[in-house]
Amino acid sequence: MITPASARKTWIALSTIGLVGAVIFQSTPAWAHVKWFSKFSYADKPRTLPQAMDSTFWWLLALSVFCIGLLAALDHKISTAQWGKRLTIWLEGYKGYSTIIMRAGAGAVLLLSFQAGTLFVPELACPATLGWIQFTLALLLLFNRTVIISGAGIIALYVYGITQFGCFHMLDYPIFAGVGYYLIVSTMRNEKIKATGLIMLYVTVGFSLAWVAIEKLLYPQWGLYLLQQNPRLAMGLNLKFFLTSTAFIEMSLGYLLMICLLQRSVALVITFVFFSTTLVFGKTEVIGHTIIHAALIVFLIEGSGKIYKAPIAWHKHLMLRAAFACVNFILLVFCLLVSYQNLAMAKYETTIHQVEVKTPR
Fold first, then answer.
1. Cα separation of 220 and 213, whole Å?
2. Helices 55-80 + 82-92 axis angle, to 10
């Protein structure tokens, strides 16, 4: 029986999710992967850490930490509410379709990339031979016995991408290594090994979102170029503030996926976000985000999984959960920021050196 108190709590929870979703949805145009549409070059010098950590950075970091703490409380309310439990049971009834969804998503990406002449995503141009390999891997996903071969092939292509485009560039796309691993273990009979595939998906998708968000802080000129070409996307806001805001939104949602905090709600929000960017940027967005859509649908169905405890569930007490979520988010932001800046600076120096060697004096 639904009491007035439980109905009020449910309404508050739904309203909060709706409000957060609406704010994020309004920022959707800036969620397009900047490298797919902007004039980017590693000859551009990245910002230093002091330059990136301006007053806007600190205010948005504080706001993000505050919101994550509130979401930890909201997650607890939803997970203990009767309607939340019923929704979980209903969604988990479709768990048998998870592998099929990932096979379909991976197959679609491989075929789209084959047709576009790219490796996985729009900006990674590849030779025709590699395109035919992707086409073959897509065909292998049609048969249960060859799924493991296709999964291994996707990981091999990701490694190939590292050799051709560099580790720094390919850190934007660890999701493909995660998908390959998920497909491989999906064929295993051992349930504990099989369950690690979902963990790998959460980590790689979450990391991909958070890592690309750092790009907006250290290479703001790339994102600003996109916004300057389409100023209406910023909805009248200051372009630099809008870009930094979207960076923190992406980082926050990527982190929420990694610790499995409100993972179903986050998956739903991100799915709507990427569908909306497709309306703005068209076919290129479809090629780039199809695999993420597939992973997000799996998250919606599977939740955090049953065999391994989600990171946010390590603490039972609500205050400890909130503290865990907030402290680890701060650690993640600074770890990613320092790592990205060091790698970007090394890439810049290497690129400049190569240009100097090629340029005759």
1. 10
2. 90
Vertex 26 angle, CA 325 and 213, to 5°: 50
| pLDDT above 60 (res 16) | no
pLDDT digits (tens, 9 = 90+) for 84-98: 777 777 877 777 888
Total residues found in the chain within this entry = 361
Question: Which tokens sit at 172?
Answer: 């934007």
Backbone dihedral angles phi then psi of residue 125, each to the nearest 5 degrees: -65, 140
Q: Give the distance from CA 247 to its chain's centroid.
A: 12
Query: What is the C-alpha to C-alpha distance for residues 129 and 165, in angstroms, rounded to an integer?
Result: 17
Q: What is the pTM of this model?
A: 0.83
Specify whether the CB–CB gap between 220 and 7 falls below 8 A.
Answer: no
